[in-house]
Amino acid sequence: MDSAVLDGIINKLLEVRGKPGKQVQLSEAQMRMLCVLSKEIFLKQPNLLELEAPVKICGDIHGQYSDLLRLFEHGGLPPRSNYLFLGDYVDRGKQSLETICLLLAYKIRYPENFFLLRGNHECASVNRIYGFYDECKRRFNVRLWKLFTDCFNCLPVAALIDERILCMHGGLSPDLHNLDDIRSLQRPADVPESGLLCDLLWSDPSRDGQGWGLNDRGVSYTFGADTVTEFLEKQDLDLICRAHQVVEDGYEFFANRQLVTIFSAPNYCGEFDNAGAMMTVDETLTCSFQILKPADKKPKFGSFSFGTSAAAKPGYTPTKSKYDNLEYIFFILLPLWYPGDIHGQYSDLLRLFEHGGLPPRSNYLFLGDYVDRGKQSLETICLLLAYKIRYPENFFLLRGNHECASVNRIYGFYDECKRRFNVRLWKLFTDCFNCLPVAALIDERILCMHGGLSPDLHNLDDIRSLQRPADVPESGLLCDLLWSDPSRDGQGWGLNDRGVSYTFGADTVTEFLEKQDLDLICRAHQVVEDGYEFFANRQLVTIFSAPNYCGEFDNAGAMMTVDETLTCSFQILKPADKKPKFGSFSFGTSAAAKPGYTPTKSKMFLFLFFYVKLDIALH
């Protein structure tokens, strides 16, 4: 097919960007040609693709064409970006034809930059039932469906990225002993009811057991974390990347982050409230997840404003003095980074700055708990205070529950001050801590504090009216802002297991946000496995920035940013002493393996970063 003709098809398919649900009516002859030409390319390329980063990886699409276009909008259209799709392009959604046609057209146009794997729905016995057959028959005829079926039977079933990341639609198989087993699978092929090909498209990880188990789908198996670890070690791999399952945030880790599930169809079938995700592996060995919220979930966020300071918007008359307890952050040059608890882990604080950028290049709002637990609380708090003094309108510090004499007298900071200097110094820091602000309001949409909500918090003026300097009392609003926690186990207010303050349910979060006309609560205060954790249908997020907390937890640390596109991003730091096996990715102008390329595991990185981008800007 002439490239101009192919570009015409692609452009026609892209004309409906921003018009969800609008059909694109290609001719049957055009679709027939897409099937024939892509089939030839699939068969020329191996069943186990061997690719190089950078590459963007997408999971299930399921005929949600407008969401596919959103993925391209934010990932970049081919060939600017390389793509690997993990299967399940058709069925369920209303526009399977547009979806598969655009994907096949890109495959033909950019065969060495654009890759498609087979999913369990790229199978006649499945898509005969779940929608694709009916769509083909309704809009064209059964002959067209059969052409697509022949094409699907030629799709590759797995991809290996830089010999470190194995990708497939479903998962592992008891018949998968080495990667040559995948290479030896014959094509064209229907999907059998059992065996290696079936499992690669159908199997699922299971958190409920070890080894192999029966799959509730009625086909293939489940496999435990032990199976993942054993397979990766035996094959000298680092990560399994797969799709096949709806996951709430569009991606989900398994087996201590040795496997990740990616699902790219937000609000799946119009019934789930899930997000969709896209993973990128880039040249710095950074795996990033861009998360798309459902397109019909319109956030209330307005546009952020820009400038060089935190001054109020023109025409806005704030009622606060410069000693207000509620920081207003309007005109900060975005992005603004939000780290959570640091707890004296000074080397990790330096890593945060290394990857977020040193002030004033980047602007920061820290959510408290700078001291205690870790071995270098003095270095930590001194650097933070120095930056606050040097860049007062670009660098902000909130108070945490450990910025309190009665707490840090016990949990390490007092002892560190006394051992390295004297008690007088500790008292000086205590006086300083008593003057810290306790909350921040970002562009009148995001409320930030260390702990959480309070039954005594009726409106934001309650925070503004808190007096400083102040010790932290054992109860009341100031106590709760620094100590309270969200609870998944109940609604409303409850007693906190910490023995101080309260817990609050998702209903309390929703009610508060609606009453105050806010969009998000951003807080810290709790160790969370991946460094950040959503609550209350993504209306609250917890951020914790001390990886491998106290040297006892295997948690990651995270930092959130809000940028000029109203994208909230989470940069996740794995513990510095957890050295991944990833070597440097190799690069070229395409995702095809370089001729004569002999990969080696070169310089090992001390840490691996995962970026997570939450798309809240799409209206």
UniProtKB/TrEMBL annotation:
Pfam families per the UniProt record, alphabetical: Metallophos, STPPase_N
GO cellular component annotations of the record: cytoplasm; nucleus
Q: What is its EC number?
A: 3.1.3.16
Its recorded reaction(s) are:
O-phospho-L-seryl-[protein] + H2O = L-seryl-[protein] + phosphate; O-phospho-L-threonyl-[protein] + H2O = L-threonyl-[protein] + phosphate
PROSITE patterns listed in its UniProt record:
SER_THR_PHOSPHATASE
Q: Which GO-annotated molecular functions does the record name? A: metal ion binding; protein serine/threonine phosphatase activity
Q: Where is the Serine/threonine specific protein phosphatases domain?
A: 117-122, 398-403
- Which cofactors are required for activity? Mn(2+)
Name the keywords, alphabetized. Hydrolase, Manganese, Metal-binding, Protein phosphatase
The record ties this protein, via InterPro entries, to: Calcineurin-like_PHP, Metallo-depent_PP-like, PP1_catalytic_subunit, Ser/Thr-sp_prot-phosphatase, STPPase_N
What is stated as this protein's family in its record? Belongs to the PPP phosphatase family. PP-1 subfamily.
Q: Which PANTHER family match?
A: SERINE/THREONINE PROTEIN PHOSPHATASE, SERINE_THREONINE-PROTEIN PHOSPHATASE
Q: What is this protein called?
A: Serine/threonine-protein phosphatase
What broad taxonomic lineage does this protein's source fall under?
Eukaryota, Viridiplantae, Streptophyta, Embryophyta, Tracheophyta
Report the gene name. Answer: TOPP4_0
